[in-house]
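Aim 2 progress update. The chain analyzed this quarter is reproduced below.
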Amino acid sequence: TLVALDGANVVIPGQSVAKSDTDLVITGGSSPAVSITLHKAGILNSGLAFGDAPRLQELEFVCKRTWSSGTADPLFTFTAT
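Predicted structure tokens:
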């Protein structure tokens, strides 16, 4: 969804790469369990390898700065339990 290469969510040059306003949640581990949320993330850069099967390589995400009541909202949150 965040790659937005085509379809209704495609990112056209000049548009915000985080236009979908989607949070990217990355989780892993068991002790401690770790969760990182990138708020309103969008893909900035990616490598594509075409051939028999299209494949994505490394992905680079950025977050969109938002404000609520004059205060900056967090770009990311990190939890470990």
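The two ends are 28 Å apart (CA to CA). Residues 3 and 46 are 8 Å apart (CA to CA). These observations will guide the mutagenesis experiments scheduled for the next reporting period.
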